[in-house]
Amino acid sequence: MKLFKKESKIEKEEYFSFCVEGIYEHKNGELFVLGIVDGIIQKLDSLFLIGPYGYEEKVEIQEWIEVDSKQNYYALLIDQCFQEEIDQGYIFTNKNNHLASSREEVYNPYLQFLLDQVNHQHYDYLDILFEQLATRAYFLAVFDYQDFPIYQINDKKYYPIYTSQLEMNKDQKCKNKKGSVYSFDDYSRMCLNQDKLDGIIINPYHKERSIVLNKDVIQHIRTIKEKNIKTYAKAKSYLKDRKRRQKYEIDYES
After folding, report:
1. Residue 222 contacts residue 216 (beta carbons within 8 Å)
2. Where are the domains of the chain?
3. Which pLDDT tens digit goes with each residue over 97-127?
4. Which residues on adjacent β-strands are paired with residue 237?
5. Once rounded to an integer, what is the mean pLDDT over residues 128-133?
6. Are 96 and 56 in contact (CB under 8 A)?
7. Exposed, middle or buried, 71 (CB in 10 Å: 0-12/13-18/19+)?
8. What local confidence, expressed as pLDDT, does residue 4 receive?
């Protein structure tokens, strides 16, 4: 099953992504990773491998192989040590997934991939999308309580946020306004406090990377974040206790 649909017109951006569609053992012991490139390809010696639930690893690329360049199909040869980690639905990209590099730039390679999947009715990615929104997603938007743009669908009003500057530039209402980068949590908090809003819409002018989130869904995503924070806090506390115990054992033995 093809997991990623390339847009007919790829807009120029500084990054590209390589969506993994198949993993095979190569004759020399490397992994042969088949995928499709979205964006302007750069045959780099290393890329970031990004997956669900915060997985990110820098990977050395041993070789690029053209499979069908007209359809943007390529293959990568990488070390077989990644065989147990990589899977369909992971992506390679030339920038890491820290998402917000400044208060005016935003980068969402894995989030854009997840939005593609959900829009193509691959709903097994929905939980991963919600987790990404809850903990790792930053967006560009006009963040102004006094005068912010509203995207209307019938009688419902939504606050538009964007995964990139290119997406925001498609909104005529935002052309002469300065955008800011904030987390999804910041935008969701603002939305829930506005009675005139019915929710948030991500990338309203993109056919395959747009999604509408009503206030019930936004509240559910915020609940996911709270659960994750508790999990991270427990893990951090456990690591501190373990280090403390190890120090005590070393001191006691000495």
Report:
1. no
2. 16-97, 106-254
3. 555 444 556 777 888 889 988 998 888 888 8
4. none
5. 88
6. yes
7. exposed
8. 40
Task: Tell whether domain 16-97 is in CATH 2.40.30.10.
Answer: yes
Mean per-residue pLDDT, 223-251: 53
Question: Residue written as tokens 């606050």?
Answer: 159
Structure tokens belonging to residue 167:
């997406």
Query: Same CATH topology for 16-97 and 106-254?
Result: no
Give the model confidence (pLDDT) of 34-51 as tens digits. 998 887 788 899 999 988
Q: 175, 116, 97, 94: which is closest to 142 by C-alpha?
A: 175
Question: How far is it, in rounded angstroms, from Cα 121 to Cα 171?
Answer: 26
pLDDT at 53 over 70: yes
CATH (residue range 106-254): 3.40.1350.90
Residue 246, pLDDT above cutoff 50: no
Summarised one tens digit per residue, pLDDT across range 187-200 is 899 899 989 999 99
Tell me the CB-side half-sphere exposure of residue 79, using CA atoms within 13 A.
Answer: 11
Dihedral sign, CA of 89, 90, 94, 99? positive
d(CA 163, CA 183): 11
